[in-house]
Amino acid sequence: MSNHIKAFPIWGVFALLSNIILMLAVILLIWRQYKITPEIPSTPIREQREPVKLDWNNQYVPPELGPRHKLSYPEWLDILKQEAKITAQKKPPRLTILAGDSLSLWFPPELLPENRAWLNQGISGEVTNGLLQRLDFFDRTQPEIIFVMVGINDLIRGLGDGKILGNYRQIISYLRNIHPQAEIVVQSILPHGGEGATWEGKEKLLAIPNTRIRRLNEEIKKIAIEKGAKYLNLHPLFSNKQGNLRSDFTTDGLHLSPPGYLVWRTALQIYFQQEPAPQNKAIDNTSTDFDKLSRSRSVTRVNRL
Asked: Strand, coil or helix: what is 240?
């Protein structure tokens, strides 16, 4: 028995303790910052039907970028257009779309909440106007929910708040018009890491006060509610006491780390549990075949989980 104990590596003990501490920290953070509730006065808050399930084994798995990391913007457009076309043809039940920039793009498929068909329409470096111009890619799909997160790249490029908000109005209006039966969920812009950022464009981040991002989020929230969409406030979950992106949730002060995506996943799970169960929409246990598209990317972004 003693030999087995001695054989257990000390790093394994530290890893286990780190996982436990991180899990408790995230649970406490979500408990204290329960602003992720859909912020529409007429929407009642329902009690959770079952505990949120977390997969903490994936938190330290680095993303495998592969050839897809080198794709150009036009190449990404072609891929996303193909994926949306196939999804429209397959008509998977409970289709949920992620629309946005690299934060959505690199959301690990294995961490996306289960029992849904996911279509990832994120592109690295995307801005609000770019997203607006390609919303027609998934016009023919029949999504149940569309999650939107975009705007940080607009700020990095020096776009004014008025232009960003104007684009948000058009994005929400377009989605409401084309997908009247879908639930449109606008997610807050996340903070950046401030002085602790290591991203190559750090000076551009430092030119954007995180207080400005918070004020911009307040305006985005007003537009979402005005347009009949829902607003998911993720910002408090990712902020430290200084209002910057928490270092343990980011890889470089801009992009998210695996633990950061676990927090996002948890927020989505809680959101889904608060929503009324869909009627007459049975979950199809069959998987959708996207083998042809997966050759162009190391991880298929349209995923049946």
From this structure: coil
Radius of gyration from C-alpha coordinates of the chain: 20
CA distances from 180 to 91, 175, 176 (A): 17, 8, 5
- And the tokens for 244? 């910057």
Q: Which two tokens stand for residue 43?
A: 């929407």
What burial class does residue 208 get, using C-beta atoms within 10 Å of its C-beta: 0-12 exposed, 13-18 middle, 19+ buried? Answer: middle
- Quick: pLDDT tens for 74-125: 999 999 999 999 999 999 999 999 999 999 999 999 999 999 999 999 999 9
Enumerate the domain spans of the chain: 2-304
Tokens 């449109």 correspond to what residue?
184
The verdict on pTM exceeding 0.85 is: no
Q: Report pLDDT digits (tens) over 200-237.
A: 999 999 999 999 999 999 999 999 999 999 999 999 99
Q: Which listed CATH number (3.30.420.40, 3.40.50.720, 2.30.40.10, 3.40.50.1110) goes with 2-304?
A: 3.40.50.1110
